[in-house]
Amino acid sequence: MSLLIDLVLLAMLALTALRIIFLKDLFAVVMLFGIYSFLSALIFVNLDAVDVAFTEAAVGAGISTVLMLVTLALTGRNEKECARSSLLPLVVVCVTGAVLVYGTLDMPPFGHADNPVHEHVAPRYIHDSPQEVGLPNMVTSVLASYRGFDTLGETVVVFAALIGVLALLGVRREENSPTPESGLKSHQVLHVVAKLIIPLIILFALYVQFHGDFGPGGGFQAGVIAAAAFILYALVFGLPNAFAVVSPKFLQVMASLGVLLYASVGLYSMAKGGQFLDYNRLAANPIDGQHYGIIIIELGVGITVFAVMLSIFYAFSSQVARLNIR
């Protein structure tokens, strides 16, 4: 049954991708990209990779779709016709695909018990993480403890993305300009529903943030969910009101503080005589130190991701508002 579900979802992914290639309406393409991400999340769930599915649904089908829609407001809905021949790019893609397929022929069978990953790495985490880290969620143990330095790098990459967007676009907030209100201002039903849903979304984000040690979740997912709540607020009540609630300057400071909070755990562990991000040095009991370290660094990740996602939305939306004023 599981194999049948995988085949059906894979077929739907392939059909969605093919449709995206031939569509010229970019709005429809963005919608199909969201569907593609949602189907990918379903595949991850069927493979028991719930944490990955959580991230794919929140980022791929959620925030990314909103950001691409805002981008369309700046660039236009219809794809421009290309005057050049597409034969050469098609040949390059086909050759590259053929090389990649050829390279997979030497790979071990998918899911086979004798695969190298199941002989060395996975058993190490499965058997030793309960004693060394003490968390029920093994994914959090791997990402936040064993691969804590890699996760710090991912957080820095997210922060670097914010720097790039602000360098290119910035957040335009012209106090003396008649900034247009949200197009949803007259929809009272949406106002009432948003006022009910937004607090629940924020509450769920806090649950995901601090329950990641015991179940699917963590800083990345929580930060995106919290940002989605404020993006919904901006869409329904207008960008000026969102600026009044959470200002762009405050978000830039929070993005920096999140990265610094993460890195400070590593520096503190070094000051206590350990290695960088050695959580065992944070408390007399190593297991307690692991818990403290993971909670703090996950909080830093959540703060950074929330601030970056909302700041990027502000940057794109403020550009759209500026065009509407003109």
Automatic annotation (TrEMBL):
It is found in: Cell membrane. Residues 189-310 form the Na+/H+ antiporter MnhB subunit-related protein domain. The keyword Transmembrane helix applies. The chain crosses the membrane at residues 6-22, 29-47, 53-75, 87-105, 152-171, 192-210, 222-243, 250-271, 291-316. It is a multi-pass membrane protein. Keywords: Cell membrane, Membrane, Transmembrane, Transmembrane helix. One of its GO terms (cellular component) is plasma membrane. Its main location: membrane. Residues 113-172 form the MrpA C-terminal/MbhE domain. Residues 11-76 form the MrpA C-terminal/MbhD domain. Belongs to the CPA3 antiporters (TC 2.A.63) subunit B family. This is Cation:proton antiporter.
